[in-house]
Amino acid sequence: MNKVVAISRQYGSAGRTIGVHLAGKLGISCYDSVLLDKIAEKTGFDKKYIQESGEYTSSGSWMLSALAGRDYNGHSIQDEIWNVQREVITELAEKESCIIVGRNADYILEGKADILSVFIHANEESRVERVVNEYKEIQQKEDPRRKIRQMDKRRRAYCQLYTDVQWGDARFYDVCLDSSKFGIDKCVDILAELYEMM
Amino acid sequence: MNKVVAISRQYGSAGRTIGVHLAGKLGISCYDSVLLDKIAEKTGFDKKYIQESGEYTSSGSWMLSALAGRDYNGHSIQDEIWNVQREVITELAEKESCIIVGRNADYILEGKADILSVFIHANEESRVERVVNEYKEIQQKEDPRRKIRQMDKRRRAYCQLYTDVQWGDARFYDVCLDSSKFGIDKCVDILAELYEMM
To answer: What average pLDDT score do residues A20-28 get?
Structure first.
């Protein structure tokens, strides 16, 4: 079985950056936007739409659309994307050891890969700083604290809708780290150490 | 400020053992039953009673007694023990860098010490194994799974009653580790590494 580091993270906690740096250190790939490309290709949906229909959502009532608009089999477009996402992530994990950021890869890959499941969080101050200055995703007059709360809420709800994992509950992850306490480099070091021993 | 490793843990997750080994590795003290002695001395209550009136409780309805039996100031015996516990833990942290297992030391010491807050958990299988074969606290015919659930429930409720920490929620700890995934030695290594960088 291949080894997969599945990183879940709070919005603004540098989880994605940690994934990318870890991949560089371990010499394996970190999948994030490539996942979107593959899902877009398989579903025929626009990449941006897929981005917004999962835990990356930054606008729109995806939860509503997930529950409404079902076809005669009771499936929504969200469900279809979830199914394709599962296929794409499973194929990746069968092909190579890698890092997958977000998209509930830990849940999807249970029993199919040797998983290191990770949750990255950080204090509000550093998340605000990161979201405002690095992500540059905050609109004028938008309150970054409100944005952070909303994004976490959506990721939690999405996770709850499609998995048995309680988002952010330590018991569901092998390791959880506060990136604002330890810094990105130390988190990468710790995860590399845990990966190597798997 | 002294450095304090505050270890919260699921029942049967080897959190206490990790604390003791970590203390040996770092050359500092690990406080656990010594805390009980000090609290017993200060309150005049029996050590066993104190043990049962906190997160170590293994029998009795401490939650009920915490909420009932209040004096005319609205204080219960539980509250008194909590206050003395706070004093004892604060004094320890002012005196020396150390490790404290349980008793919500992370919450008590906020702003009073340089804290590494840790949550140790493990899968049910290894917890049952540990509780049955190492703790030897299971009575005949008692279901260890039930005991584990009860103990966690009590620790969670106690934490909720006296602190703002959501027990087991990754956001409230600097680092959370699954001891059944990594083993006791690796957990000790990781924590020592994080302690050294503080």
So the answer is: 98
